[in-house]
Amino acid sequence: VTARTGAEETTARIHPLWHVVPAVFVGGLLLLGARSLVVADSRFGWGMFREVLVVDVDYVWVLEDGTQRPHWPGAELKGPAHRLDGRPGHLYGYGRRAMRDWVTGYVRWRARRDPPPGAVALRGVAAWTVNRSGPTWRDVVEAPVPP
Amino acid sequence: VSAAPGRGLAAWTRFWFAREPSQRLALLRIFFGAAVLFQAMGVHGLYRLPHVRAGLPRHFAPDEYPLDAFRLPWPGLEWLPAPGYEAYRALEIALVPLAALFTAGLFTRVAGPLLALTFAYLFALSQLTYHHHLFLFLLGLLALGFSPAGDHYGLDAYLAGRARPRPLRMVLPVRLIQVLLPLVYLFSGLQKLTPGWTSGEYVRLLGQGGWFQGPVSAAMLAVASPRALGLLTIATELLLAVGLCVPRLRRAALWVAVAFHLTIDLTMEVRGYSWAMLALLVAYAAPGPPRTVALYDGACGFCGRSVRAANLLDWLRRVRWVDFRVPGAAEAAGGPAPAVLEREMAVVRSDGSVLRGFDAWRDLLGRFPATFLAAPLLRVPPVARAGRAAYARIAAERFCLAGGACEIQPPPASRAAA
Questions:
Q1: Is A67 left (phi over 0), alpha (psi -120 to 50) or beta?
Q2: How high is the ipTM of this complex?
Q3: Helices A6-13 and B4-17, interaxial angle, to 10°?
Q4: Quick one: CA dihedral B81, B87, B92, B98, positive or negative?
Q5: What is the reported pTM?
Q6: Hey, CA dihedral for B366, B372, B377, B383, is it positive or negative?
Q7: Which one of B64, B187, B206 has the shortest CB-CB distance to A45?
Q8: Chain B neighbors of A105, CB-CB under 8 A
Q9: A101 near B CB under 8 A
Q10: Is the separation of the CB atoms in A76 and B70 below 8 Å?
Q11: Contacts of B206 in chain A (CB under 8 A)
Q12: Residue B415 has pLDDT above 60, yes or no
């Protein structure tokens, strides 16, 4: 018979799966925080007020013949999504990568809904200035229109 | 060397899975539940407190419903069904009674998980509605909502009666919160190590953008430069990340954290973030056997009532009350002689130091969760002078204050025998 310490008694009562809970919790927080620092996406990384982007997004339908036709979002952009509506000067606080995800998500979603005749892709051109006074960045994302 | 992994596993297990009395967990439930309740009712922002109106039931207009158009699901969660407006509104409103039940400790084992799951579902529906404070609420609810947080200080505990067993509980939920907070401060501080913050430019932009609110912010901006505020914010967050992890620094770190979040909430619109962080700081309240002994006069009815009142405030049971008239009790506790205790009560602290009279009460009030924030006011010199004078007078007339015949009651035989 071996006398057990308090810690061993605790171990004996704990199902092994319990150990996954703190490992996932702490590991997840560390990974998300590190990711947030690396990819300029402060979501899940506690980047409170890291930077403010002044965002201006323009959209064009790319037609079969190579010409372009402007696209103006409508009522489908409600609430927080209004920052994607193409009007200049919207403020966004969660980082460049997060904004790019939003624009990408929108053009993919919109390209599948009622594209104009002959359209092969919807393109979003996002321009943003960091903290109002920084350089202007430009990012282009494109989603094909499904056949 | 071969024993090192075993020791490491034992330390890991002790840290996360040791069992302890669950008063601290219950306090977390109350404070964090209240923060969730205020969040669900749209009550936040100390800077606008006089103008806050709670919505009961919460007003939720159709144009606030974001899911009938482009909703941008999280990767991997596209399968989650989006509720219609009425169902979404019902879920938003349901957060209020669920949070109220959880805070009050009524049907805790049902209300807690339901609250956490409802909140998680609403959070997971769309990337577009992400906010840091909502993520903080979600993590807090996942840690606390499924825990046995209703053993103390709640209606479940009250209705079950005193005879109900209150087993030791796993410390895991409290530890998750204790690890969460330093990581929030750490990453928040690291993310601000940018030229915009260290030069103060970003604080200036926040000011120009109308982010600072309320009268306190105007005074703050008049006193401190944007650069100083930026550097102070970064330093505070990084120091809190370290201070909360180091036992010697924890007490000071807790005070800094309270001041930090109160300042933020008095000057900026951060929704429920500050209140949630303040509530979660309760995770650092130290439980355990009472190491502070208070020596009081058991022959005085007024003193007995004072002890009962103090016990109502001592939620973590950190103080043990001892009647100095029991022979040998004061000596055993390391307190002053009974002749001294005839004049004033005394507190023997864990380090063996002794405080008497008003100073003793001030020390006790600084230990109670309900009063520790106000206790420092008793250190203001005029307040302390008035307090000592009032205490001396009350102590001298305590037998008359009891409503009796101004005589010392003989100690009961049982007490003397003990």
A1: beta
A2: 0.90
A3: 70
A4: negative
A5: 0.83
A6: negative
A7: B187
A8: 70, 72, 127
A9: yes
A10: yes
A11: 49
A12: no
